[in-house]
């Protein structure tokens, strides 16, 4: 065996390393992917509907059975998938940016358990039976829980606003507490148990158009706040001291960010169930395309989130014919191997 | 006086580290704060840079209370580089330096030709032109520190606070960074305040030294006035000989041992 030592060369120097694709190209590509996923979502389902009939249903429905399937089931389902996917993708990128933690997901603020608790309580205590009603309660629960988490984090974080660590600790504690209450309630009430277990799996099926309209204003407001938050998040990524030195109002930036995460993930989770895992994965797919600039990372994450959620939903409709697999289950089945690959990466990601 | 601390009380939570401290920084000087670990020198620098709000007393920037000025306005006058800052993975040197332009941007006007010019100038001043597209993680420690200083320079302030800019650097890289500080002061007339651990480098590169112990200023003045054998004993519990630096003529501290 040769004992000659090959000198270790540093990576090629001088050459510009900015190999990232142009934003306009990426945006076009991602919009294309979302469009393909949306088209598939309208076309594919447990009941085979010929493309001509789908077109007929979209352009001039005359009340045939296929028209009803497409316009009252598939279109609202696709719309909700788009909204929830965008919301969870952006919320995940915001969450990881604010906590500087690549393993943070939007559920860390307590939205998932807050929504679950409020829904179950609505069924048990108020006898709410309509889906529309559950979702209002879920939304309220998500908002109240995350405001509570934020307040607790604030108390622990001192004058400069809540720190990522105090937020994560408060979120974990509040989530565990609410989960215990929810579990106790569903064990006592069969009807609540039934709603809860389907909600927990995570699905965008059978929601109707009114649900998409219901969550739209929350998602829209959340997206506006997210875009306003992007430049501030870029300076926060250099550490709080550097951000302050650069004239950033750190407490305000954090508050806007948490408000955006709450609105986006609260709306998505209340309407579709425990899908926060999507928010954990998506930013990792977006980051190689965007680099560390949140002004690109946030829109990319939103589009990837929508494409991934709709794509997984379509897969769920196909693999278990004539039944369906919940999109939350598909996402977890496909997402887990992806996460193993992430962990096996050469070096841990630093944000 | 560019920057002034008047009777400041500083601490974290209930723990008071500095109490009733007065200090003035004159325009166009390089001031270095020295003192043993935990004496409050970084805390003082953070307060001067409004990263830490005093619980008593006040900090004045050009005669105005710094905590009553809009933080973005302060950021156009005063640059602060905290100790050992970290950047997200994959951030390039040019990206980092560009973020120093934040105080000059608004949400509707993100980037201008003025920003472009300031970034180019900051890279040139720190000798990093040509390395702009390199990720920060691939640079040497000295280059990385110069990139951070470059970010602070792109901010376009004539007042710079540097907290231990030479930590974790070998001697050659320490000298490299301090030569840059000297150039910023000499050629561009900037006022610099830094915290340093190495007394001999502090003596060589500063106009004024401020020696602190237990939250109080024990002595302030030229390196010759401050770096004396009795003072080293008082501030650091260090028995040392002070001789003349054969290169720069500044005081050179040669330790004998720790006094008990």
TrEMBL record, chain A:
Sequence intervals crossing the membrane: 25-46, 78-95, 107-128, 134-155, 167-188, 256-285, 297-319, 325-343
Principal subcellular localization: membrane
Annotated keywords: Cell membrane, Membrane, Transmembrane, Transmembrane helix, Transport
Annotated region (Disordered), positions in chain: 1-20
Membrane-related topology note: Multi-pass membrane protein
Domain of life: Bacteria
Subcellular location: Cell membrane
The keyword Transmembrane helix appears for this protein: yes
Membership in a protein family: Belongs to the binding-protein-dependent transport system permease family. FecCD subfamily.
Protein name in UniProt: Iron ABC transporter permease
Naturally occurring in which organism (per UniProt): Streptosporangium pseudovulgare
Lineage: Bacteria, Bacillati, Actinomycetota, Actinomycetes, Streptosporangiales
From TrEMBL, chain B:
Domain ABC transporter: residue ranges: 1-239
GO MF term set: ATP binding
The UniProt record lists the keyword Cell membrane: yes
Database matches in Pfam families: ABC_tran (PF00005)
Claim: Membrane is one of the keywords in the record: yes
UniProt cross-references to InterPro entries, sorted A to Z: AAA+_ATPase, ABC_transporter-like_ATP-bd, ABC_transporter-like_CS, P-loop_NTPase, Siderophore_ABC-ATPase
Topology with respect to the bilayer: Peripheral membrane protein
Top-level taxon of origin: Bacteria
Location in the cell: Cell membrane
Chief location bin: membrane
Keyword terms, alphabetized: ATP-binding, Cell membrane, Ion transport, Iron, Iron transport, Membrane, Nucleotide-binding, Transport
Name the record gives this protein: Iron-enterobactin transporter ATP-binding protein
């Amino acid at each position: 065996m040769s004992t000659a030592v090959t000198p270790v060369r540093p990576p090629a120097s001088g050459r510009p390393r900015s190999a990232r694709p142009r934003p306009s190209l990426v945006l076009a590509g991602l919009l294309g992917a979302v469009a393909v996923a949306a088209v598939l979502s309208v076309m594919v389902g447990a009941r085979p509907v010929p493309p001509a009939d789908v077109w007929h249903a979209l352009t001039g429905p005359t009340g045939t059975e296929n028209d009803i399937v497409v316009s009252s089931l598939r279109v609202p389902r696709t719309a909700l998938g788009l909204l929830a996917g965008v919301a969870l993708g952006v919320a995940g990128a915001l969450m990881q940016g604010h906590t500087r933690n690549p393993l943070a997901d939007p559920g860390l603020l307590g939205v998932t358990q807050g929504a679950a608790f409020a829904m179950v309580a609505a069924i048990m205590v108020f006898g709410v039976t309509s889906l529309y009603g559950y979702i209002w309660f879920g939304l309220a629960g998500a908002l109240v829980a995350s405001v509570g988490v934020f307040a607790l984090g604030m108390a622990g974080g001192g004058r400069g606003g809540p720190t990522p660590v105090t937020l994560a600790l408060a979120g974990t504690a509040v989530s565990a507490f609410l989960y215990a209450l929810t579990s106790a309630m569903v064990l006592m009430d069969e009807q609540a148990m039934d709603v809860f277990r389907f909600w927990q799996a995570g699905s965008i099926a059978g929601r109707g158009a009114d649900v998409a309209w219901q969550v739209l204003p929350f998602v829209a407001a959340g997206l506006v706040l997210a875009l306003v938050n992007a430049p501030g998040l870029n300076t926060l990524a250099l550490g709080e001291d550097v951000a302050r030195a650069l004239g950033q109002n750190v407490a305000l930036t954090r508050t806007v960010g948490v408000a955006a995460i709450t609105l986006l993930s609260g709306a998505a989770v209340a309407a579709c169930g425990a899908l926060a895992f999507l928010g954990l994965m998506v930013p990792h797919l977006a980051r190689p395309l965007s680099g560390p600039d949140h002004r690109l990372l946030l829109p990319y994450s939103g589009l990837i989130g929508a494409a991934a959620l709709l794509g997984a939903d379509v897969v769920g409709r196909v693999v278990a014919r004539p039944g369906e697999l919940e999109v939350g289950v598909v996402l977890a089945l496909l997402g887990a191997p992806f996460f193993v690959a992430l962990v096996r990466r050469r070096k841990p990601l630093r944000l | 006086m560019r920057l002034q601390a008047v009777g400041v009380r500083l601490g974290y939570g209930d723990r008071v580290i500095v109490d009733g401290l007065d200090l003035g920084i004159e325009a166009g000087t390089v001031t270095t704060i020295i003192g043993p670990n935990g004496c409050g020198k970084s805390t003082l620098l953070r307060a001067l840079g409004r990263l830490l709000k005093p619980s008593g007393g006040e900090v004045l920037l050009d005669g105005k209370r710094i905590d009553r000025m809009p933080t973005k306005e302060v950021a156009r006058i005063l640059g602060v580089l905290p100790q050992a800052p970290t950047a997200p993975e994959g951030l390039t040197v040019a990206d980092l330096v560009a973020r120093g332009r934040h105080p000059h941007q608004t949400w509707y006007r993100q980037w201008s030709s003025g920003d472009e010019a300031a970034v180019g100038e900051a890279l040139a001043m720190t000798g990093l032109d040509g390395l702009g597209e390199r990720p920060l993680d691939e640079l040497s420690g000295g280059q990385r520190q110069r990139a951070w200083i470059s970010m602070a320079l792109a901010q376009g302030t004539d007042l710079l606070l540097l907290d231990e800019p030479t930590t974790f650097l070998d001697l050659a890289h320490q000298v490299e960074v301090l030569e840059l500080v000297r150039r910023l002061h000499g050629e561009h007339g900037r006022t610099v305040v830094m915290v340093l651990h190495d007394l001999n480098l502090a003596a060589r590169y500063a106009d004024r030294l401020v020696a602190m112990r237990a939250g109080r200023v024990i002595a302030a003045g030229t390196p010759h006035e401050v770096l004396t054998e009795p003072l080293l004993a008082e501030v650091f519990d260090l028995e040392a000989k002070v001789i003349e630096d054969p290169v720069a003529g500044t005081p050179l501290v040669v330790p004998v041992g720790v006094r008990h």
